[in-house]
TrEMBL record:
PANTHER family: L-AMINOADIPATE-SEMIALDEHYDE DEHYDROGENASE-PHOSPHOPANTETHEINYL TRANSFERASE, PHOSPHOPANTETHEINE TRANSFERASE. Residues 107-178 form the 4'-phosphopantetheinyl transferase domain. Keywords: Transferase. Belongs to the P-Pant transferase superfamily. Gsp/Sfp/HetI/AcpT family. GO terms for molecular function: holo-[acyl-carrier-protein] synthase activity; magnesium ion binding. GO terms for cellular component: cytosol. Coiled coil: none annotated. This is 4'-phosphopantetheinyl transferase. One of its GO terms (biological process) is lysine biosynthetic process via aminoadipic acid. Gene3D superfamilies: 4'-phosphopantetheinyl transferase domain. It holds the Pfam family ACPS.
Amino acid sequence: MNKTDRLEIIFAHYDEPVPDEFLNYAKPIQPNPSEKQIKKWKSRRVAHFILYQLFKKYQLDTKLLDQIHRTPSDRPYILHPQIDFNISHSGDWVAVIFRYATPQKVVGIDIEHPQKIRRYNELLHYYASQQEIDEIHTPTILSQLTDLTDRFYLSWCLREAILKSQGVGIVKLSEVKHSLSQQKIASQHCPKGYLYFYHQLPFYLAYFIEQSETMLSLPEIFQWKDGSFHPITIITPITYQVNH
């Protein structure tokens, strides 16, 4: 990875301790918040703390994190010509992708921590082409994904990550074209780049990165735990070309 294109993917448990000065970040103002509201708040708090750590790592002005803006579709961003980031939380986990590049390059991330079995086939028929559905049900294609749950979340997460790179909602899921056999994705809702999918973590993870003039090496994924970053080094993602 070159010096002007740096990429970080960090995840943490939503209840991971943070320093005292972050304890009340985005705390719900209403009395007696629900368990779901508390989990969402703690996830946002941990994500904010991870961003703070990354800003310190790259000697960036942490005061920018006090001025996070949102697009009309609610995608967070900061006013900086070289930084893009994206956040996802699901179930017990939260993940952050951060990119510091010249010129700015977009990123998107999605994680899914399933809490129940969903009607996978019905959902697939809602947004996927028949060819994609047929390939999902062909176990010899991407045979490392051994059951329908894995294969459904590949199909779902990659779309979310693609669309989130531009702040486009899931209403556009069907406009993302996905070939498992060719490991290619096409979408008018993102630039040319690459998509990486992991099924070996406690959750499913997909992230999209816009292609750089100088090709990025595959970055490590880190878990924030017990006050430090721990590299996750023994797993390999499924890689897709996007709009190639």
